[in-house]
Design goal:
With 304 residues, the protein is of the alpha+beta class. The chain folds into two domains: 2-44 and 217-294, SH3 type barrels (Roll), CATH 2.30.30; 54-206, Ribonuclease H-like superfamily/Ribonuclease H (Nucleotidyltransferase, domain 5). Helix content is 36%, strand content 21%. It contains nine helices and ten strands. It has helices spanning 2-7, 15-24, 27-30, 93-108, 125-134, 150-166, 174-187, 197-214, 282-294, and strands spanning 54-66, 69-77, 83-88, 113-116, 137-140, 225-229, 244-253, 258-262, 269-273, 277-279. Helix 6 packs across helix 7 (174-187). The protein is elongated.
Length: 304
Amino acid sequence: MAAKVLECGYYWLSIYHDSNQMVKACDQFQRQGSISKRHERPIHFVMEIEIFDVWGIDFMGTFVSSCGMIYVLVVVDYVSKWVEAIALPNNEARSVTAFLKKNIFTRFGTPRAILSDGGSHFCNKAFTGLLEKYGVKHKVATPYHLQSCGQVEVSNWEIKSILAKTVNANRTDWSRKLDDALRAYHTAYKTPIGTSPYRAAVYKERMMFVHDKKILKREFKSGDLVLFFNSRLKLFPGKLKSKWSGPFKVVNVSPFGVVELASEDGLGTFKVNGQRVKHYLGTDGEKHLVEQLALKDGPCPTNE
């Protein structure tokens, strides 16, 4: 477009910018192409329970004494299946509270809730006082119903299974093998979550950073005109009809990338993902640009 204007002997300083804006405002031009991965919305964590929000806690033992240790305290994250465990000489409340403060609260943050059985090592003043201090809810499982703490029981069984394959014949070195067993557990593939606990716990933030770095930042606000990419529209091969419908007016934008649009009849609304919409410049913007071009100067002055 700019080249044709120059061929006609006209020129102004913003000719290339104006040409670009006029092409962008073309209705047919805006309705071409498909949606792009660069138009994806930023990743948001929308689960009701996030990683390290809810932990299950339980004791394993008593075992054969190993370096004075006869119990294993196990704490499991219900989302990532991440396990923290320690060998202990007793199952007293002070051992439990010390472990939670040092290994859970300071490393993974304060959880929303902790699930346990009704044992005296969990239902006592010291344990209750610690949770109340940090604002953590204590959920007690139904007695004689192991499914209430099913995730902890599954993790206990897996750790026991790993230890059974690595300890000596007398089974007196299990406390020294516990860290190796945890490493094997953390890096093993877990079918329910589709990955290992290590990847679920460590790679989530990294994946969000890499994803958001590649996408274009686009902001929508109420009143904007947008085109909607309707992937459900079935077209016969060879048809030149566009899958971009609209324009529609934006009614509301949620913090999780959902855009609410007014229907074409104006009587209702519908919600779509922000990746499927793009700003519409519209004919009003095109007319305004043409009016501006009409006010531009004529041919560029010569030195003659």
